Amino acid sequence: MSDLYNHGTGDVLIERRDGGVLLITLNRPDRYNSLTLPMFEEMNRIWADVERDEQTKVVVITGAGKAFCTGMDVAQPDPTSEQALAMLESERQRVSTVLRIEKPIISAINGPAVGYGLSTALLADISIAADDAVLIEGHTRVGVAAGDHAALIWPLLVGMAKTKYYVLTSEKLTGSEAERIGLVSLSVPREQVLPRALEVASQLARGSQQAIRFTKRALNAWLTNAVPQHELSAALEILDFLGADYAEARQAFREKRAVDFPSARTVGAPAN
């Protein structure tokens, strides 16, 4: 693409559709569109470009292949403390930019969405999930605090009781169940996800851009008021990246065994 999105690596595809619709596709289908560390920065640049892109009216984001995005690629080397701190800043910038963008963002959740992937899906203004898509908040499963979106958006979408249940347990939801409790906007058969998202995008692109953007700005005040909670949760997540539980979770993944969290063996254990 010969414009401001020309800095990509191929792991994220950008396509201009008719009528001012921009399609973003996470493009690592062999790894379920999980993110490498450089991809976090690439996504930050893309969202910043979207904000200043005068040709785009509506954004649709989806995943290549069978998945939407399964979060950070845990097969890559462990992040250093410097990389973990850089990720904290990257996440702060991403969420701030996404909330500030006045153009509508639609997520087409064509398959599994976990961690960062679910964050990207739910921070969109309209979320359309496959009926059978698997959605997992996921952070506590790998020994880190839910820091990239849960404290910010889940309570507004489904209330605190459902939030605590699904975020603390990391229990999976299907797209149809997520629609039932209000976590996503719509659920449709898998083959209809992207066509439906593009249909909604076209409808919005033909509407009053000022009215749509001003309405989004007003509604997003609910979210921007909660940004301090997000920044606290993100900081706690980064602390956990440096801890023993996260190291054990990664080692268990590599060895294809159940996780044995050190904190579960010590915290709250009865004294001998």
Automatic annotation (TrEMBL):
* UniProt GO molecular function: isomerase activity
Keywords from UniProt, A to Z, are:
Isomerase
Q: Which Pfam families match?
A: ECH_1 (PF00378)
Source organism superkingdom? Bacteria
Which InterPro entries does this one have? ClpP/crotonase-like_dom_sf, Enoyl-CoA_hydra/iso, Enoyl-CoA_hydra_C
| Family statement | Belongs to the enoyl-CoA hydratase/isomerase family.
Q: Which PANTHER family match?
A: ENOYL-COA HYDRATASE, ENOYL-COA HYDRATASE ECHA15 (ENOYL HYDRASE) (UNSATURATED ACYL-COA HYDRATASE) (CROTONASE)-RELATED
Entry protein name? Enoyl-CoA hydratase/isomerase family protein
Species lineage: Bacteria, Bacillati, Actinomycetota, Actinomycetes, Pseudonocardiales
